[in-house]
Design goal:
Layout lengths: L2 H42 L9 H14 L6 H19 L3 E5 L5 H10 L4 E5 L2 H10 L4 E8 L3 E2 L1 H8 L4 E9 L3 E4 L10 E5 H6 L1 H7 L4 E5 L2 H8 L5 E5 L1 H6 L3 E4 L9 E8 L9 E9 L5 H11 L4 E8 L7 E8 L5 H13 L2 E9 L4
Parallel strand pairs: 1-2, 1-3, 7-8, 7-9
Antiparallel strand pairs: 3-4, 3-11, 5-11, 6-9, 6-10, 12-14, 12-15, 13-14
Keywords: Amino-acid biosynthesis, Aromatic amino acid biosynthesis, Coiled coil, Cytoplasm, Isomerase, Lyase, Multifunctional enzyme, Phenylalanine biosynthesis
EC number: 4.2.1.51, 5.4.99.5
Pfam families: ACT, CM_2, PDT
């Protein structure tokens, strides 16, 4: 390395050190401002003060992505700001979030992606327990999976909305990467048993057929549970994600073994309060139709006539004998908009029952 090159590198490092000091100062100023926001809210004396505002966070992150000059891409910059916002919010009031556990699941990863790593995540053993924690007020929000791009909808999540007054407050789409994980006691050439959740085993079926055709495939309650088993078995491996690998100190024998490279899962954020419009929103509704000819046409016609974009229509058997089917529908826009109000009014006249599950910001990341 020449003298001129060394001098140039030293100058660049000095510039980075100076920028780091400026960034540190600005983050500290932002955190102080967040504390002042908390003081103002507390002084107002309102009951059930909402420190975390999903619509406000979505607006901030969209603006950051729009203003981002590079070279970091917009999503990476938004992730950095989300962590700053998460840490600042923790100074006001740490957000408690229930998720489908145990620790190390993709649902926890989705919770941390949405709320940042300063949130307090609380594992639950079942989806209905996540709903109960939110309904009781023990946590502010919950995170539950709702659909996978290859395996389809998670019916148990949809069924919980039928009997709940919980609101949908947001969504997270998580790219799912599965890894074959082993522990320090695993004999890598003697693997005869592979643990994972049934859906993960299905999503890696072709890879397993090609690489471990004779290994026993054992379905367990979660990928994190699979990671726990592997720590004590010399002839076993687990299929799980990055979070489980880090949490249970496992190493990756093979990476990204999912059969579909674009495999992703959508998660819903649930809470107790409706969310105001953010400017780019989605609405989810539950509709019960009577069993009569043309019922589906009657349900969908108002959306078509008003030009409202339906992004998802799912059908579930009704728990009541008054009708045969319950429709879960997602559409673009907030329920407070004039067009949405007109469409929902028309649907309500034609349906046996209509429940607005929530309007919420479209997933930013």
């Amino acid at each position: 390395m020449t003298v001129s090159t060394e001098k140039e590198l030293l100058n660049l490092r000095d510039e980075i050190d100076s920028l780091d000091q400026q960034i540190l100062k600005l983050i500290s100023q932002r955190a102080t401002c967040a504390q002042r926001v908390a003081d103002v809210k507390m002084a107002a004396g309102a009951d059930n003060t909402q420190f975390y505002r999903p619509e406000r966070e979505a607006q901030v992150l969209r603006k950051i992505m729009d203003l981002n000059p590079g070279p970091l891409d917009g999503e990476e910059m938004a992730r950095l700001f989300r962590e700053i916002m998460s840490a600042c919010l923790a100074l006001e009031n740490p957000v408690r979030v229930a998720f489908l556990g145990p620790e190390g699941t993709f649902t926890q990863e989705a919770a941390l992606k949405h709320f940042g790593h300063s949130a307090v995540t609380v594992p639950m053993s079942a989806i209905d327990e996540v709903f109960r924690e939110v309904e009781s007020g023990a946590v502010a929000y919950g995170v539950v999976p709702v659909e996978n791009s290859t395996e389809g909808v998670i019916n148990h999540t949809l069924d919980n909305f039928m009997d709940s007054n919980i609101h949908i407050c947001g969504e997270v789409v998580l790219r799912i990467h599965h890894h074959l994980l082993v522990s320090d006691v695993t004999r890598k050439d003697k693997i005869s048993r592979i643990y994972s959740h049934a859906q993960s085993l299905a999503q890696c079926r072709k890879w397993l057929d090609a690489h471990y055709p004779n290994a026993e495939r054992v379905a367990v309650s979660s990928n994190a549970e699979a990671a726990k088993f592997v720590r004590g078995e010399w002839n076993a491996a687990a299929i799980a994600g990055e979070t489980a690998a880090d949490m249970y100190e496992l190493s990756k024998l093979s990476e990204k073994i999912e059969d579909q490279p674009d495999n992703s899962t959508r998660f819903l954020i649930i809470g107790s309060h409706p969310i105001p419009a953010s400017g780019d929103d989605k609405t989810s509704i539950l509709v019960s139709m009577r069993n009569q000819p043309g019922a589906l046409h009657d349900l969908l016609e108002p959306f078509h006539r008003l030009g409202i974009d339906l992004t998802r229509v799912e059908t579930r058997p009704s728990k009541s004998g008054a009708w045969n089917y319950v429709f879960f529908i997602d559409f673009k826009g907030h329920s407070d908009s004039d067009m949405a109000k007109e469409a929902l009014s028309d649907v309500a006249e034609r349906a046996a029952d209509l429940k607005i599950l929530g309007s919420y910001p479209c997933g930013v990341l």
